[in-house]
Amino acid sequence: MSGPNGLKRSPQGWRLYHLAAEFCYVVGFTLWTMWISLTDSTTPANYAFVGFKLIRGCSSPKGRQVAYINLFGLRRCFVSISCGIGMSFAVLD
To answer: I want to staple 63 with a disulfide (CB 3.0 to 4.6 A). Which of 4, 46, 58, 77 is the partner?
Structure first.
């Protein structure tokens, strides 16, 4: 496989790049999700840190509704973005 100017590209190098990118994406999303769960916000616009106060409040009906929306809404976005990135990696490989 040749790149620009006739330079050889290693398939192993691309696989390592893809693995590193996927790892950074998953770990970054996990850390961001943990940070959001400890902020005083029902939307990601407010990043004021409040600790575990909202996690304890999930037992209220409003807290359950927000948790349900965050769980299924953000999961749907995460899976869609992950599939898109995976498909682009498959096309590039």
So the answer is: 58
| Integer Cα distance of 43 and 80 in angstroms | 19
Which residues make Cβ contacts (< 8 Å) with residue 3, sequence separation at least 6? 9
Once rounded to an integer, what is the mean pLDDT over residues 28-45? Answer: 79
Residue 49, in any domain of the structure:
yes
Tokens 């330079």 belong to 7
Region 38-67 average pLDDT: 73
pLDDT at site 83: 92
Q: Which residues pair with 8 in a beta bridge?
A: 2
Residue 1 domain-assigned (yes or no)? no
Give dist(CA 20, CA 13) in Å, integer: 11
